[in-house]
Amino acid sequence: MNNEKHPQRIDYGVILSVMLLAIISILSLYSTTVLIQGGGLGMTIRQIVWYGVGVVAVLIIMQFNSEQLWKMTTYLYVAGIIILLLTLVFYDRNMALSTGGRRWVRLGPIGTIQPSEFVKIPFILMLAKVVTKHNSVFKNRDFRSDLLLLGKLALFALIPIALVFMQNDLGTALVYIAIAIGVTLLSGIRWQILLPIFLVISAIGLTLIILVVYNREFLLNTGLFKPYQFARIDTWLNPHQGTSGTSYQIVQTFKAIGSGGVFGKGFGVSEVYVPVRESDMIFATIGENFGFAGGAFLIFIYFILVYHMIKVVYDTRNEFYAYIATGVIMMIVFHVLENVGMNIGLLPMTGIPLPFVSQGGSSLLGNMMGIGLIMSMRFHHKSYFFSGEGEEFHPGT
After folding, report:
1. How does DSSP assign 189-246, residue by residue?
2. How far apart are CA 81 and CA 90, in angstroms?
């Protein structure tokens, strides 16, 4: 009789975390749009439908093991680049006029979608493949091979990041950068290379901050910065002195969250008006309805989700999967930190939604696709290593 314990193919920790976030999302949207704003059920129902689509996407992605994902990665990455290019041509003109961004495409009755949210997945896969293949070729890493790997990562990362920047979507571009940084740090490139780069970037950042304060005309003349970006910085530094709509929105968000106290005012109860709180400012509803306790519980759920994603990597012992998981984790963690940070005034406004909670089908589906990759790791639970010959995989030990 074989008493060997077989590994669990379904990660119920990840499933439970996403289910709790889904419940919080639906209840928060209902509280915001129906009870607080007095609107209909349309937005809540659409969120439920998008969650249904996301579940289907998870079930489909789960069927692909690491070998199949490896073979598909390059094609998916090229397709993603083409999609980002097409977005710059076929973007929704009305949305561009109202928001200044060229990131949305209108698809008939479906409405508008943001393709860059979906392209995050092939972006993560491609960076993971680059590192895994490089490590398989260069068994004994040295300074030169590390420089080569950094060059490869920069090449494959900068193309989509530049295209997202061209869509006037700084928030999403920052997410792509966070993903690339996470994979780069985990890739094992020696600190003698990364430290000088970090110092140079820090110096550039400090210079930009000085120019923002003392010489904005110079930055505007470069064409790389827009007036609305300076307005967001002003709102971040002096939210109560600004006169823009962003200043009003963030000040109202502070009031809503602060008025919730420790345990909140109760479900659907609001005394503070926050513009468009169902999207990037959904945390204001959670803070006002359920107080500090509700916000802390939400962040704890994210912590549990990330913990289980990391645990999957340790259990499956697959290098390719490890870099994929790093990209997905960085994507979700950066979203959470930036969204909650801007809601409580620690970080400037960037238009980044709260993962799995904010209204928005594109963001939700993109995050669910990332969850599908994590679920596929546990579902197949095999160790592979890349042989370095062609595209062939062999079982690991």
Report:
1. --HHHHHHHHHHHHHHHHHHHHHHHH-HHHHHHHTS--HHHHHHHHHHH-TTT--SHH
2. 14
Rounded to an integer, what distance in angstroms lies between the CA atom of residue 330 and that of residue 183? 9
Domain span holding position 270:
12-395
Q: Please calculate the CA angle 174-50-305 and round it to the nearest 5 degrees.
A: 60
The answer to whether residue 38 sits within a structural domain is: yes
> For the chain, what is the domain count?
1
**Could you give the dihedral angle defined by the CA atoms of residues 296, 297, 298 and 302, in that order, rounded to the nearest 10 degrees?**
100
**pLDDT reading at 274 higher than 60:** yes
Query: What's the pLDDT band for 218 if we cut at 50, 70, 90?
Result: confident
Which residues sit opposite 386 in a β-bridge? Answer: 393
Question: What is the pTM for the complete model shown?
Answer: 0.90
**What angle is formed at CA 343 by the lines to CA 342 and CA 348, rounded to 5 degrees?**
20
Residue 4 lies in a domain: no
Residue 194 CB burial class (10 angstroms; 0-12, 13-18, ≥19): middle
Average pLDDT over residues 371-393: 67
Which residue has tokens 């439908």?
Answer: 49
| The pLDDT value given to residue 134 | 94
Average of per-residue pLDDT across 268-283: 89
